[in-house]
Amino acid sequence: MRTLKLLVLDVDGVLTDGGLWTTESGEVIKRFDVRDGLGIRLLQQAGLEVALLSGGKSGATKQRARYLGIHHCVTGVKDKVAALGALQRELGVNPEQTAYVGDDLNDLAVRPVVGLLIAPADAVAPLRRQADWVLSRRGGDGAVRGLAEAILQARGLWTPLAGKGWRERND
Predict the structure, then answer these.
(1) Which of 97, 142, 158, 168 lies at a CB distance of 3.0 to 4.6 Å from 153, suitable for a disulfide?
(2) Are 116 and 6 in contact (CB under 8 A)?
(3) What pairs with residue 52 in β-bridges?
(4) What is the β-pairing status of strands 21-22 and 28-29?
(5) In 3-state terms, what secondary structure has residue 121?
(6) Residue 8 falls in which region: left (phi positive, over 0), alpha (psi -120 to 50) or beta
(7) What are the sequence ranges of the domains in the chain?
(8) 6-164: what CATH class?
(9) Up-side HSE of residue 56: CA atoms within 13 Å toward CB?
(10) Quick one: DSSP state of residue 120?
(11) Of 7, 90, 89, 12, which Cα lies nearest the Cα of 41?
(12) How many whole angstroms separate alpha carbon 151 and alpha carbon 153?
């Protein structure tokens, strides 16, 4: 985890619990965990590039990415392997420097092009079986925050934060 340069997150089922609320006008509303948001901000501060890669086309996902300062938010993705490869080439990052967090079968397809495949506790069984790491928390319930803390611990950055706190905006 010390050599990771890119963390790619699926959205529905990873940053959310996978549920979607739809208004009468067709607007999709999603619930994001604020602790995941702070975990993402801490990783960015530590120099890790964080990207969102989603098959969904929700404006809520793009809004959340803007709010967190995530510069690479790709939605409406049909082929996650191709989209991830394009992102890696754009950023000059190789598969061994890439971690991916997903929760369903379409996320399993990226296995050959990432160094670390990670799943929330409630991911589908085939993905959990093939993942390098299954997180202890469910998607949308602090799973990404737990991952962020582990990465920061591996880099020796967590203890100072846990001791002195963090003073920037908590999103």
Answers:
(1) 158
(2) no
(3) 9, 73
(4) antiparallel
(5) coil
(6) beta
(7) 6-164
(8) alpha beta
(9) 21
(10) -
(11) 7
(12) 5
Q: How far is it, in rounded angstroms, from Cα 75 to Cα 94?
A: 22
Q: Which residue has the tokens 């089922």?
A: 13
Q: How far apart are CA 53 and CA 97, in angstroms?
A: 17
Handedness of CA 69, 149, 3, 117 (dihedral sign): negative
- Does this model's pTM top 0.70? yes
Residues 34, 170: contact at Cβ < 8 Å?
Answer: yes
**Per-residue pLDDT in tens (0 to 9) along the chain, 171 residues:** 789 999 999 999 999 999 988 899 988 889 999 999 999 999 999 999 999 999 988 789 999 999 999 999 999 999 999 999 999 999 999 999 999 999 999 999 999 999 999 999 999 999 999 999 999 999 999 999 999 999 999 999 999 888 888 777 555
DSSP, collapsed to helix, strand or coil, labels residue 25 as coil
d(CA 48, CA 41): 10
What is the total residue count of the chain? Answer: 171
Structure tokens at 9: 């997150």
* pLDDT score at 155: 95
